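As a warm-up, study this chain.
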Amino acid sequence: MTGPTNTADQPKSYSSPLPTPRPHLGHAVASEWTKMISVRSTVWTLGSMVLLVVGIGVLAVSETRSTDYQEVPLTAPALFGLLVGQISVMVLGVLTITSEYGTGMIRTTFTAAPDRARVLTAKYLVFATVAFLAVAGSVALVGLSSAILRGGAASGHHGSGEWARALSGCFYVTLLGVLALAVGAMLRHSAGAIAVMLGLVTLPPVIGGMLSMWESMAPLGSAILRYNAPVALMQLFGLPDAGTGASPGTATHLLLLLLVAGAAVAGSYVVVGRRDV
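Now compare it with the structure written out below.
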């Protein structure tokens, strides 16, 4: 018959002297922010977007006259660079997640943070915030340049409404980047996801023009020509109708992209949560 166990011989549980808070979304956001500012792709993509929007926009302002802004908003010159700069935003959205798949760091990320939904949410929040601020800041610089250099003669024609429309255009470009991030999360391949996004932005005007050549497909072609990214940006920025049949500043484009991006984001949560890596 054994005697009583000596409690002094039992191993003691380890207690870390460091604070061990329960992981939450703020930790994941801080981690994704560190990743974003630590890689060169962020500097190259957002830097090229800023150079395109500001450079082309200021150049457009220098080629205009004050009377030109009696019919168009002061932020209109920023649109010329943004039509190209939106590609940089989409590329950054893709690389925000596919770069980790390419290097294998995604395994480390999911090991350190097993809650994949939390990781994805942090990526979406950090990317959307950075992208929107970069796009809005670039557009604001061009708008202020046109207001200072060309806005004096037509100042009575402008107000806060055109700046609100410009912000809606910046939000539209940010949504394109969010959609790109979702596509990258599902495809896990940088080149493939970028190709998909370029097709979504550049092919609809071409396809719409081709379909409009056939009488039976003309209504579909007309609809595609009215609702695509370039036309959406022009109308969100408040430019006059260029024969597309849709009124400037309509919220239809935003709602359409919100639905598409929302479906893609939901799909990314499902796909990333179910597969191994």
